[in-house]
Amino acid sequence: MPELPEVETVRRGLAPAMEGARLQRLELRRPDLRFPLPRDFAARVEGRRILSLSRRAKYLLVDFEDDLTVIAHLGMSGSFRIEAEEGANLPGVFHHERSKDEKHDHVVFHLHRPESAVRVVYNDPRRFGFMELMARSELDTYAAFRDLGPEPVGNILSADYLATRFAGRSQPLKGALLDQKVIAGLGNIYVCEALWRSHLSPTRKVSTLVTPKGKPKAELALLTQSIREVIADAIQAGGSSLRDHIQADGTLGYFQHSFRAYDREGEPCLTDGCGGTVERIVQSGRSTFYCRHCQK
């Protein structure tokens, strides 16, 4: 599934093409993705101008005039590409290759500006993605948003905050960090990376990072800093990828990124002086990559 940095990369890549444009036509090539597409979807948004693109956790938000917002989730295989009359204009590349087969083009946004006309195409072979439509003023009531925790890029996330969520709990650290009610938008890849940076084991009980008085230990402060830094670095890498691939093949999604722990099973740990090897274990059905030698 795409994680916060990937969705932010998609948002930044789509924004220049979509923000300020008028949706001349919404082409729906099937009635559903993972779920049925919104009722009267095209009729409700056609002719309206797109005010902005924003993001909440792993969801892309397309804000139209008249208080309407399209909520989009890429699922496991969804991607967007931007097509102009002279051909595809592709800011961004994938870490995992996505489909370019037109038979999997399910939703097409036909956009118009005085100086140009472009198409933004949503492609999704497995159709695990979805789109919803609701009033912008009511987004806080959307089921997936109601209980979301703070974002890892905001000011609310702190060691003190995490101490309140971890105190007295025996849950493994990785599972707690993947809980979207604790931190919104943090996923498997970047949890592995943050735990490697902070030298913490994914199997460690979260309560061991909190003092008996409920205060964060130094290890929890380092973890909080590592979460912020790994997300910031990933977003920055995505931004660089957008600039470097402005004339690429039109596919927008996962960006190339050099991981320090994730997907490095059997390779030497990159922590200076460690000498350990990255291992893979399975936690709650998901692969975890870590070094037991330096992550305690």
UniProtKB/TrEMBL annotation:
Gene3D superfamilies the record matches: 1.10.8.50, MutM-like, N-terminal
Residues bound to DNA: H104, R126, R169
SMART domains hit by this protein: Fapy_DNA_glyco (SM00898), H2TH (SM01232)
Gene Ontology MF annotations: class I DNA-(apurinic or apyrimidinic site) endonuclease activity; oxidized purine nucleobase lesion DNA N-glycosylase activity
CDD domains according to UniProt: EcFpg-like_N
EC number: 3.2.2.23, 4.2.99.18
Pfam families to which the protein is assigned, alphabetical: Fapy_DNA_glyco, H2TH, zf-FPG_IleRS
Keyword Electron transport in annotation: no
Keywords, sorted A to Z: DNA damage, DNA repair, DNA-binding, Glycosidase, Hydrolase, Lyase, Metal-binding, Multifunctional enzyme, Zinc, Zinc-finger
CC cofactor: Zn(2+)
Record's subunit section: Monomer.
Protein name (record): Formamidopyrimidine-DNA glycosylase
Lineage: Bacteria, Pseudomonadati, Pseudomonadota, Alphaproteobacteria, Hyphomicrobiales
